[in-house]
Structure formats: structure tokens, C-alpha cells
């Protein structure tokens, strides 16, 4: 139980499924882990305000030097603030927010990266998560059903990440090979990915995560 990262599981899933499990509630150590996870979720909620923040994660200087800088733009105050740096320099990476946590994955730094990390706004620290099965840059990224999905990015592969288990799962790949610069979004239980394939044309793919199927 201690190997499961309950802190990054959504509060709804914790209260509706995990907390309701009798075996976990009766075990003292498991009970303490559940209390810690719920306290973490409540802390994030109480520290949250009505302000909208935009995270700017990594990039390049003078289009040459990759950075690990992270800055936050406060929309209500119209100000840009410095934030703790990531652990690794990244360029052409992808970032997404899930359950109040910021994830930065893939990118390029003297080679295509398969590494990923997350930022905890409570501890104000970046930490590595499990590496992806494939390196990628410019991949599409989105969230669905408490999972993170990465699509393409100089690769035809699709992967999903479960924060609760800290594991990546290979999904049905994209037909053919793409040149990167993917964009992904979710609509009506499907993930849509717009990419440029090797013949130079743009292609739109629809991935249904419920059945692990892709259609063009």
C-alpha cells in the first residue's frame, strides 16, 4: 500500500472507492496513509483561490540553449513570477495539469527524452516520475479519467500514465509515422490528435481510451 501514490489520486476517487474499502480502513498503517492523502487534498483546496495561473515550463534561450526554468503567470494580477526550476533541461516538451499537480514530460536535450516530472504546488518542488516507454518531443498531451495520455512526438506510439501506480501503459499506436508537433484534446470520451505525418500532410486521429482503438 505504501508504494501507491495516494496523494496524486483525485479526492473523489479516494472518498468514493479507496476510503470505502473495509480492509484498508481496518488496517492501521493503511488508515494513516489514507489520512495523509486526504489531508494533502484538503490542503490543496484550502490554498486554492479564484486566480487563474498559467505555467510556462522550460524552453530555449536564443533558440540554442535548453532550460529547466519554470515561470507562473497570474492572470488576475497580470504578473509573471519565477517558480522552482525543473530537475532537467527540456525543449519541445509537453505539460498538463491533473488534480492540482503540473506534469512536464518528454522534450529534447542533447537527444530525445523519455523522462517526466511533476510539480507539487504545496511542497513547491519538482520530482521525477517513472520514465515513458518511448522517448518523444513535441507530443500531444491531455488527461482523461484521472490518467495522462501522450500521443506521438516523433513517434507513432501512444502511452497513458497512472499517477496512483506511477506506471506508463502502451496503448494502440498511431497508424504510420508522424513528424511530431502533435496536439491532443478530449471530447465526448475520445482523444483527438492533430499531427503532421511523414508525407507532409496533416492528419487527425481519434483514440477511444475505453476500447484502446484509433481511427483516422
Q: Can you offer a commentary on this structure?
A:
The protein has 216 residues and is an alpha+beta fold. It folds into two domains: 41 residues; 155 residues, Neuraminidase, CATH 2.120.10. Helix content is 15%, strand content 39%. Strands 4-5-6-7 form a four-stranded antiparallel beta sheet, with no helix packed on it. The chain has a four-stranded antiparallel beta sheet with strand order 8-9-10-11, with no helix packed on it. Strand 2 and strand 3 form a beta hairpin. Helix 1 runs antiparallel to helix 3. The longest helix is centred in the N-terminal third of the chain and has 20 residues. The relative contact order is 0.11. About 3% of the residues have low confidence. InterPro entries: Kelch-typ_b-propeller, Kelch_1. Keywords: Kelch repeat, Repeat.
CATH class of the largest domain: Mainly Beta
Quote the distance from N terminus to C terminus. 40 Å
User: Could you estimate the helical fraction of the residues in percent?
Assistant: 10-25%
Largest sheet: 4 strands, antiparallel
Measured by DSSP, the beta-strand proportion falls in 35-45%
Task: Record keyword descriptors for this entry.
216 residues; alpha+beta; Neuraminidase; 2 domains; four-stranded antiparallel β-sheet; 15 strands; 15% helix; 39% strand
